[in-house]
Specification:
- With about 140 residues, the chain is mainly α.
- It folds into two domains: about 90 residues, Helix Hairpins, CATH 1.10.287; about 50 residues.
- Helix content is about 80%, strand content about 0%.
- It is built from five helices and no strands.
Length: about 140
């Protein structure tokens, strides 16, 4: 249990570092910074680099590239929140917890792979309904 707490605390620290960095970037005029597009580009590049490091006996480099992907992803989310594309980063994490919690519960409860797709279909319908209520469009 201590390991999980340490990992969660570390994740929070990384998340807040990313928030601080985005705050600085959004308030500064860096010639290279282009909002979320910057981090979208970097995520693509880092995924390519991670694929190159995905081999046996290479954990140090692979962990480094995975960390870069996480950093860029968290920064991407923070830019989207700062620019009001999403309501909050917290909402993203709540959604993923709910989504995969429901899907895994269905799979384990029914012990069938179809359960995953059934709950996924239901979730997409609920998401569309929420979108229509919030934005009035399909």
């Amino acid at each position: 249990m201590i390991y999980k707490k340490i990992m969660f605390d570390t994740f929070k620290k990384i998340f807040f570092l990313s928030q601080k960095r985005i705050e600085d970037l959004e308030n500064d005029d860096k010639w290279w910074y282009n909002g979320y597009e910057t981090f979208l580009k970097w995520m693509r590049e880092e995924i390519g680099e991670m694929e190159q490091e995905l081999k046996e006996n290479n954990s140090v480099h692979l962990e480094d590239e995975l960390g870069d992907i996480l950093w860029d992803y968290l920064s991407f989310i923070n830019v989207l929140e700062k620019r009001n594309y999403i309501s909050s980063a917290e909402k993203v994490f709540e959604r993923i917890h709910k989504k995969y919690g429901e899907r895994l519960k269905a799979v384990y409860g029914q012990n069938t792979e179809n359960a995953w797709y059934e709950i996924k279909k239901k979730q997409k319908e609920e998401l569309q309904q929420e979108h229509q209520e919030k934005h009035g469009e399909k």
